[in-house]
Amino acid sequence: MYAYIVHRILATIPVMGVVGVAVFMLLHLTPGDPAAVIAGDYARPEDIARIRAQLGLDRPVHVQFLTWVGSILSGDLGVSIFSDLPVSHLIGQRLEPTFALAAATLIFSVVIAIPMGVLAAWKAGTWTDRIVMIFAVLGFSVPVFVIAYAFMWVFSLKLGWFPVQGYKSIFDGFGPFLHSITLPTVALGVIYVALMARITRASMLETLQEDYIRTARAKGVDNRTVLIRHALRNASVPIVTIIGIGIALLIGGVVVTESVFNIPGLGRLTIDAVLRRDYPVIQGVILVFSAAYVIVNLLIDLSYTVLDPRIRY
Predict the structure, then answer these.
(1) pTM for this structure?
(2) Is there a contact between 243 and 215 (Cβ–Cβ < 8 Å)?
(3) Where are the alpha helices (DSSP H) in the chain?
(4) Which residue did the predictor score with more confidence, 263 or 6?
(5) What pLDDT does 67 receive?
(6) What is the mean pLDDT of residues 246-261?
(7) Coil, helix or strand for 146?
(8) What is the per-residue pLDDT for 30?
(9) Which domains does the chain have, with CATH numbers?
C-alpha cells in the first residue's frame, strides 16, 4: 500500500511540471507581441518596452522560464500589470467564494446523485429509471449559464426566494451565506449531478449482476443491505473516479457561474484578467486551478486503497 501511495505522489511531480510549462508558454504562444497587445493600439514604443521589461520578455526564453519557476517555488506568482498588486494577494482575496461554491456544489451533487443512480439501477427498466435518465441527459446537455439564468428568473425574479446576484461570506453568518450560495450551487450542480448519476447507475447495474449479490439475496439479506453494503461499496471505485474527473467540469462551471451570479471569486478574477490581458494574473489563476485539480485527483487515487483492498496489496 505504501509503495502505491508513494508512486502516486511522485507521479504528480511530472504532471505539475507539464502544467507549469504550459502555463508559462501561454504568454509566448499568444499571437503578436503580448506587450504591444497589453499596451493598446495607441501606445508609444517606450510604453511597450516598459511592459516587456516588466514581464521579462526582453530576456532569453530559458532564462525567463527558470526565473519564473524559481519565483513560483518561492510563492511569488508575479505582480498584476493593471492593479500593481501581487497575484497571490489577488488570488487570496478571491479564494474563499470559489472554494465555498465548489465545496457546496460537490456536497450537493454527491448527496443527490448517488441515491438517484442507486435508485435508477435498483428500479432498472421502470418509470423511475427512465425519469432519472431523462434528467441526467437533459442536465448534462443544457449549458450551465442557461440553467443559471433560468433558475435566476424563476426563483429570484418571479418567486423572490433567493437574491439575484451577490455573495455573503460564511464569516458574516451561516444563514446569509446559505441564502446567497444556494441558487448558484444548485445551478452549477445540475450538470455534475447528471454526470454522477449516470455513472453510478451504470456501475451499480454491473455490480448487481455479480454472483455474490445473487448469493446475498438467496440468503435472505434485505434489499437495503444488498444495495448499500454489498453493491454500492463494490461499485464505489468508478463513482469516486468520476468525482475526480468531474472536478475539471466543476472548475469550468465555477468561472461561468460566478460571472452570472456576480460572485467575487477566482472565476470573476479570471474573466477580468482575460478581458484586460493581465497575463501574470491569468498564469497564476490557471496554475492554482491546475494544482487543485491534480491534488484532488491524487486524493481520489489514494482513496482507492481504502475502497478496494486489492489495490492495497
Answers:
(1) 0.78
(2) no
(3) 2-28, 34-39, 45-55, 61-73, 87-122, 127-141, 144-151, 174-207, 211-218, 223-225, 233-234, 236-261, 266-276, 279-307, 309-312
(4) 263
(5) 77
(6) 79
(7) helix
(8) 65
(9) 87-312 (1.10.3720.10)
